[in-house]
Amino acid sequence: MWRAFFLAIGIYMCIVGAECLAIERFEMAAEEVDDQAATPATLFGNPPSPMTASRDIEPPEWAPWSFLSAGTVIILYALTINRGG
User: Fold this and answer.
1) What are the CB-based long-range contacts (under 8 Å, 24+) for 54-62?
2) 25 φ, ψ to 5°?
3) pTM here?
4) What's the domain range around 83?
């Protein structure tokens, strides 16, 4: 069980590192909200404003190589764990 867990974590880190290496930034857009469904009645009469802004994440310069190297080390560790059973 631990072997599969560490292998999955290592593969995930390698995938995230490769994605950070290939792209410049992540842009997550907010969902468009229907105005009538998104305006609940409040005690003070001011409904909350719907979210329309997008969120940008720029990975630092060191992130791709750090994720790739840590993922590789974890995968190698997972392959050397003795199988129990």
Assistant:
1) 54/27, 54/28, 54/29, 54/30, 55/27, 55/28, 55/30, 56/25, 56/26, 56/27, 56/28, 57/25, 57/26, 57/27, 57/28, 58/24, 58/25, 58/26, 59/20, 59/25, 59/26
2) -160, 160
3) 0.67
4) 1-23+59-85
CA distance 53 to 30: 6
Residue 32 lies in a domain: no
pLDDT digits (tens, 9 = 90+) for 19-69: 999 999 888 877 665 555 555 666 666 655 555 566 888 989 999 999 999
Count up the domains in the chain and report the number.
Answer: 1
